[in-house]
Structure formats: structure tokens, C-alpha cells
Amino acid sequence: MTHIKLIHEIRAVKSKKELANIIKAQRISEGVLLDVLNTLKTNITEIEVANFIKKSFIKYGAPILSFPPIVAFGKNTANIHHEPGKSKLKVGDNIMFDFGGTVNHYCSDMTRTYFWGNPSKKQKKVYSDVLHAMELALTKIGRGEKRAKVIDASARQFLNKKYDKKKLALSEVEGFPHGLGHGVGTVIHEWPNFKPKSEDTLPVGCVMTIEPGIYLKGKGGVRIEDMVLITKNGYKNLTDVPKNLNSIILQEN
Ligand SMILES: [Mn+2]
Fold it and tell me: What is the model's pTM?
């Protein structure tokens, strides 16, 4: 029996032109992120940073964002739906940025978590675990795995074993309260989806986010998100921002 391709499957596979737009949107986001990092200072508010992000995208000629930017400091980073508010940046805070821009309607998506000043042992541990979960998922994809739920499980099971559900801010899904990632295109969340029960199979040529996280009740969260192009034998990472522990510890000058 021949497989009839459905519209969402056709849309998921990106042409060279479409991919170039997504990559351009991502490069602009990376420029914005660098500018943001240079603007951070103790006592700056989330809303000030969010406004700076919006202005920077305009400056780079990409005024339409993929979605309203998420900027969270301290314990707000445990809330996956946090809206930037009046919270001020303090030494010892986790900082979470989740934003993306668009180029010719094509979206980018990226999350980075930073530490403002030297992190505690616990903060470092959570960061390293989330990063490791991401690497597990990328390794799976790198070996040619295309089943979304198998890739999701590779990251989720690792974190689920390490983190007691009772300490997590939201525990309706084991490990982390969202999918491991999603397709990206002219809309920010499109087919296919990484979820525990997903029956999706990744088509070659789709662009996916990989975004595991750990969110500790009353403390804070860590999420790291890259965008990858799914290739025949693996993937190509489209995100070009360092994420090793040393590069995410920020010190005020
Ligand atoms: Mn995302």
C-alpha cells in the first residue's frame, strides 16, 4: 500500500529556501542574545530585558517575533509559562531566555539558561543533567532514530530517574511538563511533535527543537533548546550558541 502524504507531512519538509529563512532567523536571534547578555546588570527587570529583545529584533530588520519573548529570573524560571514582569535580576539567579524571530514568515526558536554569578552545586548539577538529557536525545537522532516517542523517552527517562516528582514544579508528565520538542516552520509549533505518546515519525528535511528542562518547585528551572535539521542519517544543529556549563556562568563586570 502506498503511503499518501498528508499536508502536514509535506509542510514539515523544508525546501532549501525555507531552511535558509529559518537559519537566517536563528542567526538574528543569536545576535540579539549576544546584545542581551551585554546589557544584563544586577537589578535590571525582566520586562526591561524583554523590551530590549523586541527592540533588537527591529534593529536587525526582523521586527516580527516567533512569539512574545520569555525572560525569567530566579524562581520564575520554574514557571514554563512565565510572562516577563517587574522581577529584578539578583546575584545567584537562574536566567532563562526563550525567544525567536522570523524571516519571510519562517520562525526560529531557542532557549538558553544562564547563571548570574557563581551558581551553587545544585544549580550546576541541574544544568549538567538537562544538558546531558539533550545530548542523549541528540545522540539518538544522530544514530538515525526517527520515532518521536523514542527520542522523547531518551531524554525524559534520564531526568525522570534523577528527579523526584514531588520536587518538580509541575509533574503531570514524568521528567518535564512538556514535550521534548516540536517542528518549526511558518508557525512556531508545527507537526511533528516529540511527546511520550507521539506516534509521529520524523521526515527527512524537517526542523525540530530539542528542549528538555527541569523545573524545581519554588527554586527555579533550567531549559536548553536547540533547533536541528533532521537528515537521512542524523541531524544538523542549526543553533550556534555555546551551552557548556562554563559559557553560561555570567559575572557582572
Ligand atoms: Mn520551542
Answer: 0.96
The β-bridge relationship of strands 110-116 and 249-250 is parallel
**Which residues have a beta carbon within 5 Å of ligand 1, which is an ion?**
109, 209
What's the 113 CA to ligand 1 centre distance in angstroms?
Answer: 14
Residue 219 CA to ligand 1 center (angstroms) comes to 22
Cα(176)–Cα(211) distance, rounded to whole angstroms?
10
Centroid of ligand 1 to alpha carbon of 180 (angstroms): 9
Measured in Å, residue 229 CA sits from the centre of ligand 1 at: 14
14 touches 206 (CB < 8 A): yes
List alpha helices for the chain, DSSP H. 7-12, 16-39, 46-59, 121-142, 148-162
pLDDT tens by residue, 131-173 = 999 999 999 999 999 999 999 999 999 999 999 887 888 766 7
Asked if the model's pLDDT at residue 110 lies above 90, the reply is yes
What residue ranges define each of the domains in the chain, with the CATH number in brackets? 7-250 (3.90.230.10)
Distance 178 CA to ligand 1 centre (A): 10
